[in-house]
Structure formats: C-alpha cells, structure tokens
Design a protein that fits this description.
With 317 residues, the chain is an alpha+beta fold. The protein is built from ten helices and seven strands. The strands form two sheets. A five-stranded antiparallel sheet has the order 6-5-4-1-7.
C-alpha cells in the first residue's frame, strides 16, 4: 500500500509541478528552466510507471501481471521517445534564439557603425590634400640633393622597405571658404619655394606630386584657408639656411630663426599651420616644425598607406 500511494502521489506530481523561470532570465534561460522541468517530470513519470508495474505484477495473476507489465513498458518506451523529441525541439528553439540574438547584435553593431560614419561625415565635410613632390632622375640637381639628403624609409603592406624621397610640399585647397570650387580642375596651393615669397595661388599639379588627403571640419577648413591667405600677404621670404641646416643643427639654434627676420621654408611653415589647428594627429603635434622636412612630414601624416595618387592631372606649374 505505501508503494501504491507513492506511485499515485508521484503521478499526480508530474501533472501539477510547474517550474516558473525567474523574471530576470532571458529567453535562453527560460528554455533551460523548461527543459529542466520536463526532465524532472519525465523521470518521475518513468519511476511511477515502474512502481505501478511492480504493484500490478505482484497483485494479479501471472498472466495479467505480464500483460500489465507489457502495457506499462510500452508507456515507458513512449515516454522515452517523447523525451527525445522534446529535447530535439528544445535544441532547435535554443539554436534559433541564439541565431536571432546574434543577428540582432550584428544589426545593432552595423547601425552603430553607420551612425558613427554619418557622424564623421557631418563633422568632416571638407578635405585638404598634402601635395608631395618627388623629383625624377632628370629633375633639377638641387631638388634631387634635397630629396636624397632628407630621405626616409617606410615599410609598405608587402613588408618591403621603400624610400621616401620628397623635395617639396604644399597644401591644396579644392574650394574656397564659401564652398566655391575653382575652374579647370585647379586648386589653391599654399607653400614657398626658393627665391620666392610665401604664396597662395591657383595651381594645377604634375604627376610628380603625391597627395595625402586629410578630412577636416568645415569651420577648421575655412580658418585654415583664411590663415594661408593672410600669410601669403606678409611677404615672408625663403630661408635657405634653415632648410639646409634642418637635419644638421640642434633645435635650439634653429628656433631662433623667425618668419619676420629670417623667413621660412615649405615644410616648416606648413607644419606650423597644421599644428595651429590641431590637424594631423598627435605624431605631427609633437614634431618640431623647424626640423621638419617634406619626407618627414609625409611620414608624420601616415605615409604610403594613406597616400593616393591623383590620376586626373593637367600639366602645369
């Protein structure tokens, strides 16, 4: 009788037991609780069937006992089949939910990236091109000497070492501060060359020029444009001594040479105006303008990995 009572109690427990998942669990946790509940219920049901089988086998005639035991065994086997089916279904549900969560995370990540790109696009509506001149083998001797004496070495994506040999640098503005683009594919170039003053004039670019494009805020672009225009009006002459001594003399000596009294040279004044408006990143910001060279400035602004050759050019000065 106690065994019979336990069987009836266990059978009723399988129909009334309910494991409610915590409200703090996610969808995956909920299905884990449901699988645990089903496993406990199936275990109790099987034990109940075995207990009932023993009771019937001992209380009835042998023939009836074997018949009841066979019926109950069929129930146990059917219960085992139901357990496997539920486990497979639970696995499919869990995998589906996991994939859904993964897709949602990917979509959220893409949305965040799109938002970040749009944010950058709004803040960087304009750009300037740093134009670096690489002299050819038949160029002026002075250009080849400067490029060779101030050459640097960089490692490209293939792992090879490439020489950086520039002799001149300029800033190119594709439009004015009012967003008006210039005719005939020309841009405003800011720099200085030997035997001249600091200039800011319309130019077209030969194929020897290699650009690095820098995106800047529209307000910064307008201020940089205006600053270059003002500097071109101050009759700042070329400082040959500072250019040739930039890689030889200590910085304490070079810093004594000012624009007003001694003049400047291309990479020095361009480094100064970029630093004035915090353009170029921390590497350029920490550099010393009076020791700058075109090749060194090229390295400070990213090197060959950010350089893009301008294919559509009009031959000119």
């Amino acid at each position: 009788m106690p065994v019979c009572f336990f069987g009836v109690y266990a059978f009723s427990l399988t129909r009334t037991t309910n494991f409610e998942p915590s409200s703090r669990t996610n969808g995956y946790g909920t299905h884990r609780c449901e699988r645990f509940r089903d496993s406990v219920r199936d275990f109790i049901y099987i034990r109940c069937c075995v207990a009932q089988s023993q009771i019937v086998a001992t209380a009835a005639t042998p023939r009836e006992g074997w018949h009841c035991r066979a019926v109950l065994m069929d129930r146990v086997l059917q219960c085992g089949t139901d357990i496997k089916n539920r486990q497979l279904e639970s696995s499919r549900v869990s995998i589906t939910e996991s994939l859904s969560l993964l897709d949602r995370d990917i979509e959220q990540g893409q949305a965040a990236r799109v938002h970040f790109q749009n944010e950058n696009k709004n803040k960087s509506e304009k750009f300037i091109d740093m134009m670096y001149y690489m002299p050819s083998i038949d160029d002026y001797l002075i250009n080849r000497i400067v490029a060779s004496a101030t050459a640097k070495t960089e490692i490209v994506d293939t792992g090879e070492e490439k020489s950086v040999t520039f002799s001149h640098v300029e800033i190119s503005f594709p439009c004015d501060e009012a967003d008006k683009y210039f005719e005939n594919n020309k841009t405003m170039g800011f720099s200085i060359v030997q035997n001249s003053m600091v200039y800011f004039r319309l130019k077209s670019w030969r194929q020897e020029y290699i650009p690095i494009r820098i995106y800047v805020d529209a307000i910064i672009y307008a201020k940089l444009y205006q600053t270059c225009a003002l500097l071109s009006m101050q009759n700042i002459r070329f400082d040959s001594f500072a250019m040739y001594a930039a890689i030889l003399l200590p910085v304490e000596v070079l810093r004594r040479r000012t624009r007003q009294n001694h003049g400047t040279y291309c990479s020095k004044i361009i480094t100064e105006v970029l630093q004035q408006f915090s353009i170029g990143g921390p590497l350029l910001a920490s550099s010393v303008a009076c020791q700058s060279t075109p090749s060194l400035l090229y390295m400070f602004l990213g090197g060959r990995s950010y350089a893009k050759r301008i294919t559509a050019r009009i031959p000119g000065a």
